UniProtKB/TrEMBL annotation, chain A:
The keyword Transmembrane helix applies. It comes from the Bacteria. Residues 110-319 form the ABC transmembrane type-1 domain. This is ABC transporter permease. PROSITE patterns: ABC_TM1. The keyword Isomerase does not apply. It is a multi-pass membrane protein. GO terms for biological process: transmembrane transport. One of its GO terms (cellular component) is plasma membrane. Keywords: Cell membrane, Membrane, Transmembrane, Transmembrane helix, Transport. It holds the Pfam family BPD_transp_1. It is found in: Cell membrane. SUPFAM superfamilies: MetI-like.
Automatic annotation (TrEMBL), chain B:
It comes from the Bacteria. The keyword Membrane applies. This is ABC transporter ATP-binding protein. The lineage of its organism: Bacteria, Bacillati, Actinomycetota, Actinomycetes, Pseudonocardiales. Keywords: ATP-binding, Cell membrane, Membrane, Nucleotide-binding, Transport. It comes from Solihabitans fulvus. GO terms for cellular component: plasma membrane. Its main location: membrane.
Length: 330, 273
């Protein structure tokens, strides 16, 4: 199990390196001149040349990539002499727009994204999986058909539409909720919930639909397995048959998908954050893209990829805990 | 009085397939009845019907177990009988055992379904049962998972699970079909030995005439969901009354006779009806 964990982490690190290299190349071949972007509109050729030198843009690609990697792991210094700027570990460069270190931008935006992701995840897991499992147990019933129709509706509604509808009805028309804004859970828990409830519901509507269908499918399959029949043949109460013998195997695929989804969301819920104007990592990404702020785009990409890769490792480990066959195969 | 009496049993599935058609037979206490027939003859469906494990199928007729009609029994009554008085060993132990739980736990769980004992005590029963069915180092193996056992050992686990509550009726639904021949012989030997020790009645479902000859007191030959012939094993083997039984027996290659170019097969359904 220790080897398994180490191997997974090694693969994850390698994967991150590849993602980093790929993203770097993509930005290198992009038509925008980073020096021009960094300098702004009114900027002479002399100044641009100076910036190019400071950022090391005239050096070969592998050299630039090397410096970037060194920066990520050990920090780096841009330029020389009195004009030099130090960028501490982990250095992802400076924003062209605000001159702030990209890492600090990401870290200050993260709590909002985490708030949105975790709250929504709890909501969709509870609602989606419960609905799916009940549907599987009462296959063909009115509940089943209604729940699956609702799930399909949830999946089909685009986030930007539900988000705008919620805001219009709950905030503007009824005035039940304030406009969503970034509040810390630890400063004002009530305001936090009030601010987050709409983003949570918006995301949960989509994911709960997906999870209800997934959980139902897995549960139906699980209930038809031979070992569930064995459990009944032993004379176990139906509750035990369902919860112990059918539910656990049905939940393994759900856990896999959940890990991925949560990982992806932690890297920023781009549309949700943008529509509600919440300053999370996703909003940072969309702002950076709009202003061609290359270091920030690169940083967000790596950051988000990091979450997905980590979620992958976590899923593999949880999978091994859940399924003894995986544990022993490693 | 017979322990099990099946009369006019019919099973019709949702898609209209009549898997069992007005089947009647009985089984005396302490005796072994072998149900033989080709695939699809309704043997397994009959055994599942006895335990009430055919969700979605329409079961009619009577299955009387020790005076109780199981077809009309309430779910709670059935549950109380399952495992405790009627146990079953399935064909494929790999899929019949839950891959997520230790085998010791799965046996202990069966025991605790009917006995109010602490888990530790039920686990001791499980280890004892594993030892009884010939699993070496039972203490350690009880903590292992089904995938860590060989096919024959897994079937032994199934048997240990089925017999841990000393049921009056053991249904063995092709318990050796998925095993290779030497292991088959071991498992059959074990079942026979346990049957003698416990006095359990056995309903043995198989398509293997060799197994029937070795185990059965009585034989029930089934085809297309119906009983073709029924009788003491010696009589049925020596003087099969029905053409289908004769054909079925003729299909078994004999080691003491010259091997024919083509093995015999049973004629199609229409010809024997």
């Amino acid at each position: 199990m220790i080897w398994y964990t180490l191997r997974r982490l090694g693969v994850a690190a390698l994967l991150l390196l590849v993602i980093c290299a790929l993203t770097f190349v993509i930005f290198y071949v992009m038509p925008d001149d980073p020096a021009q972007q960094a300098c702004g509109k009114a900027c002479g050729p002399e100044r641009i040349a100076q910036i190019r030198d400071t950022l090391g843009l005239d050096r070969p690609l592998y050299h630039q990539f090397g410096s970037y990697l060194v920066g990520v792991f050990a920090g780096r210094t841009y330029g020389t002499g009195a004009l030099s700027v130090h960028c501490g570990f982990p250095c992802l460069g400076f924003s062209f727009q605000t001159n702030e270190p990209v890492w600090r931008l990401l870290v200050t935006r993260l709590p909002v994204s985490v708030s949105i992701a975790i709250g929504a995840a709890v909501l969709w897991l509870v609602v989606g999986v419960t609905a799916g499992v009940i549907s599987a147990l009462r296959r063909g019933s009115l509940w089943d058909r209604a729940a699956m129709a609702a799930a399909l509706g949830g999946i089909s509604l685009p986030i930007y539409l539900t988000a705008l509808l919620f805001q219009y009805v709950l905030v503007i028309k009824l005035g039940w909720l304030p406009h969503p804004h970034a509040v810390s859970l630890f400063v004002d828990p009530l305001a936090w919930v009030q601010s987050m409830i709409m983003p949570w519901t918006t995301l949960a509507l989509l994911y709960a639909g997906l999870y209800a269908r997934l959980a139902r499918g897995e549960m139906v399959e699980s209930l038809g397995r031979d070992f569930v029949r064995t459990a009944r043949a032993k004379g176990l109460p139906e509750r035990t048959v369902v919860l112990r013998h059918a539910l656990r195997p049905a939940m393994t695929p759900v856990v896999t998908v959940f890990g991925m989804d949560l990982g992806a969301l932690l890297g920023g819920a781009l549309i949700t954050e943008s529509v509600y104007g919440l300053p999370g990592v996703g909003k940072l990404a969309s702002d950076a893209i709009n202003s061609a702020d290359q270091p920030v785009i690169l940083g967000v990409t790596l950051f988000a990829a990091g979450f997905i890769v980590l979620a992958n490792v976590a899923v593999d480990l949880v999978y091994a805990l859940l399924d003894p066959r995986v544990r022993h195969a490693t | 009085m017979s322990l099990l009496e099946v009369s006019e049993l019919s099973v019709v599935f949702g898609n209209g397939v009549r898997a069992v058609d007005r089947l009647s037979f009985d089984l005396d206490r302490g005796s072994t009845l072998c149900v033989v027939g080709e695939s699809g003859s309704g043997k397994s469906v009959t055994s599942l019907a006895i335990l009430g494990l055919l969700p979605g199928a329409e079961v009619s007729g009577r299955i009387t177990f020790d005076g109780v009609n199981l077809v009309a029994a309430r779910p709670a009554e059935l549950r109380a009988l399952r495992g405790e008085r009627i146990a079953i060993v399935f064909q494929d132990a790999l899929s019949a055992l839950n891959p997520y739980y230790q085998v010791g736990f799965q046996i202990a769980e069966a025991y605790r379904a009917h006995r109010r004992v602490p888990m530790a005590q039920a686990r001791r029963v499980a280890v004892r049962m594993l030892e009884r069915v010939g699993i070496p180092d039972p203490e350690r193996r009880a903590r292992e998972y089904p995938h860590q056992f060989s096919g024959g050992m897994r079937q032994r686990v199934m048997i240990a699970m089925a017999l841990c509550l000393e049921p009056e009726l053991l249904i063995a639904d092709e318990p050796t079909t998925a095993l290779d021949v030497t292991v088959q012989a071991q498992i059959l030997g074990l079942l026979d030995e346990l049957r003698r020790e416990t006095g359990t009645s056995v309903l043995f479902v198989t398509h293997d005439m060799g197994v029937v000859a070795g185990l059965a007191d009585e034989v029930l030959v089934m085809r297309g969901g119906r009983a073709v012939e029924r009788g003491p094993v010696d009589r049925v083997f020596a003087e099969p009354a029905e053409p289908y039984t004769r054909a079925l027996l003729a299909c078994v290659p004999r080691i003491d006779r010259p091997v024919p170019d083509r093995l015999a097969t049973v004629p199609p359904m229409e010809a024997t009806r």
